[in-house]
What we know:
Layout: H1 3-15, H2 18-24, H3 29-43, E1 48-51, E2 54-57, H4 59-90, E3 92-98, H5 104-116, E4 121-127, H6 129-138, E5 143-149, E6 157-164, E7 166-171, E8 192-194, H7 200-208, E9 215-216, H8 220-228, E10 233-237, H9 238-243, E11 248-252, E12 260-266, H10 272-284
Parallel strand pairs: 3-4, 3-5, 8-9, 8-10
Antiparallel strand pairs: 1-2, 5-12, 6-12, 7-10, 7-11
Helix pairs in contact: 1-2, 1-3, 1-4, 2-3, 5-10
Amino acid sequence: MELRQLEYFVAVARTGSFTRAAAATHTSQPNISAQVAGLEREWGTRLFERVGRTVALTDAGHAALPHARAALAAAESARLASAEVAQVITGTLAVGMVDGCTIAPLFDAFAAFRRAHPGVRVSLGEDESPALADRVRRGDLDTALTGSAGAPPAGLEALTVISERVVAVVPHGHRLAGRRRIGSDDLDGETLIGLPSGAGIRTVFDDGCARPVDVEATSPDAVAALARGGVGVGILSESIAAEHLATLHGVPIDGVDRPALLCLVWRRRPSPAVSVFVELARSAFGLDQD
């Protein structure tokens, strides 16, 4: 039995004529008659009887008709579901990330997406966090990993992947390296090195400490390198400081209490591609276990 045979059977039942059914299904009358006859042979019963110039369903035909319609409806549902997935396979995905991003789970999610959907045209670019959020709102980016202070960017859906405190970062042997906490006055006389204004880590520091940043670096790694080189005291998040534990020490700062967030953001009513990428990111960051 083929779906085409069911389609012809339903068409003949609807029109009451093999000729009209052939026209409705864009085939020939001999073909539709042969296909229905084949279905009758397979099922071992007659489905139609001739009444003058028309045909009518037999009792067996009446019994089979709703099931044939249901089978065709199920096949159409499967086609539509497949077409929806095809939007991911043939679509596009523009992903943004904060400047100097070295967050491995984001790249893991990106790689998993490419493996699963190699037909998608994908772009990956860097920018500052406020600009990334604006580009997602405008639709220039589909999704982005951005930094923010205390709360995700307004007007967007968000998955918070990191929430942690901000610390002062100094080399081992620095006068502040052995302290469990410091106050803002402990930073007097120090050159402060931070990310650009608007970055989540920088905003948390600016809101909690009256000391201005003296040197701006475009990436966390650059901040760490400058601090390690003795240029001054770096301002970073705890996890980034921990990545440089062999050479640097992170010290909490009194008053700098709000968490610095790293969030994956996207617009409401996301495309199938974005929905798939968000779920892969959720898994890559270990958040699917929450």
